[in-house]
Amino acid sequence: MLTRNLLPVVERRRRPTHRDFQGDMPAARRPVSADRALAVVAGATVRRARRPERRPARWTLPVFAREVDLIRLHLAPIRSRRGLAASFGREAFHADIDPGIADGESVGPVTVAYAIRWLELGDGAPRPPWTTWLDESRGPQPRPTAGATRG
Fold first, then answer.
1. Which residues are within 8 A (CB) of 107 and not within 5 positions of it... i.e. 6 or more apart?
2. Cα angle vertex 111, ends 78, 99, to 5°?
3. How far apart are CA 64 and CA 109, in angstroms?
4. pLDDT tens track of the chain, all 151 residues?
5. CA angle 54-57-60, nearest 5°?
6. For residues 18 and 22, what is the distance between their CA atoms, to the nearest angstrom?
7. Whole-prediction pTM value?
8. What angle do CA 29, 33, 39 make, to 5 degrees?
9. How far, in Å, CA of 135 to CA of 130, rounded?
10. For a disulfide at 109, which of 36, 46, 47, 67, Cβ 3.0-4.6 Å?
């Protein structure tokens, strides 16, 4: 039997820092901290929930709601925004979050669950399950006036 002697090659790990990118990147594309990203995503989630016509189509799917609610159960033991931001910062998915959150389709159930938990930790008010929360977030819809006709 042949064996080869292999030597491990150890190279210094290069990890970019925020300072490496800030000089040549537009402000909207600069990396943000996990707590800032969570605050932005939470605000965008609330805005989209209030306007059904701006919601991503998949937000209303039952499978999306199940995933959001399941992830929220896993996040429930986290008792501070600092702890939530640390957890969010360790997740691999947060790297694709644009601070402008222009594309709601990229906001998945994990990000939405983190955003809702961020809101809960901010005001101490628990939020209902995802589908109920979407319905309640819409608020009262304007009613058409009786007898109004187009002409």
1. 41, 44, 45, 56, 97, 101
2. 115
3. 6
4. 555 555 555 555 555 554 444 444 455 555 578 888 888 889 988 888 888 888 888 899 999 999 999 999 999 999 999 999 999 888 755 544 544 444 455 688 988 999 999 999 999 999 999 999 988 877 665 555 555 555 4
5. 105
6. 6
7. 0.67
8. 95
9. 9
10. 67
